[in-house]
Amino acid sequence: MEFLVASSIGLLTACGVYMLLRGRTFPVVIGLSLLSYAVNVFLFAMGRLQVDLPPIIRDTATGYTDPIPQALVLTAIVISFGMTALIVVLALRTYLEIGNDHVDGLSGGPSDSGETK
Fold this sequence. Notes:
Layout lengths: L1 H19 L4 H22 L21 H31 L11 H4 L4
């Protein structure tokens, strides 16, 4: 089970970094989302979640589940949602002002960069 979770975290991170390095803005947004999912799974895995144990310490309980990883993941979800909304608005504004969706603002042709053949 640990191998499966570690592999999924690694795969999400690798795909997220690959998408971040793309030249268009939409894959960058998807890459940031994949990286935020990888961080959420990593936080859950680091919390050593236990099944059928209460999150509050009681006299009758034999153990308890640590509630901090769940709180961290909820906070990370809210932050990643806000970050994704900001990046989408910035990408849309850039597209409307420049006219293309390239990350560097150029369309990739030699006429846009001012170079001559």
